[in-house]
């Protein structure tokens, strides 16, 4: 349980540290999470500078909301509370993705939707792997 808390804190802190890096996503600077326009999922969208600024702003808001939600539930880690935290984070993520999508042109929206789909697939594969690994470790 304690390891889960520590891992959760790291996962929450890493995006904040990346966004705080000097030059990240400004003036065409190379973002450590992807290309010149931000995270990998945005590279194919051919964003304008205004779209880049708005996406950056929305991503920052998403990180702040996620951090706030995580902090509220850290002391309440029974299973029911953990599920509530995950649901709230997912709702926040969905809301931000909806706002991001609204900034895009129709052809960009298609690429954005495909990127989200790929991310969900990778997330599901990772969850399946972790489940398998936990079961294997229990048997040993």
From TrEMBL:
Keywords of the record: Periplasm, Signal
Any one Gene Ontology cellular component term annotated for this protein: outer membrane-bounded periplasmic space
Signal peptide (residue range): 1-20
Chief localisation class: periplasm
Pfam families in the cross-refs: LTXXQ
GO molecular function, one term: unfolded protein binding
Subcellular location: Periplasm
Family: Belongs to the CpxP/Spy family.
Name assigned to this protein: P pilus assembly/Cpx signaling pathway, periplasmic inhibitor/zinc-resistance associated protein
The species this protein was found in: Stutzerimonas degradans
């Amino acid at each position: 349980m304690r390891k889960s808390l520590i891992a959760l804190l790291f996962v929450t802190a890493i995006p904040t540290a990346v966004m705080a890096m000097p030059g990240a996503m400004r003036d065409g600077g190379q973002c450590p999470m992807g290309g010149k326009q931000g995270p990998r999922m945005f590279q194919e969208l051919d964003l304008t500078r205004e779209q880049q600024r708005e996406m950056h702003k929305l991503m920052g808001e998403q990180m702040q909301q996620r951090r706030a939600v995580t902090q509220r539930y850290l002391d309440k880690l029974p299973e029911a509370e953990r599920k509530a935290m995950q649901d709230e984070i997912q709702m926040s993520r969905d809301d931000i993705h909806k706002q991001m999508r609204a900034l895009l042109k129709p052809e960009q929206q298609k690429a954005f939707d495909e990127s989200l789909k790929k991310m969900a697939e990778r997330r599901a594969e990772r969850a399946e792997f972790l489940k398998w690994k936990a079961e294997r470790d229990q048997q040993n």
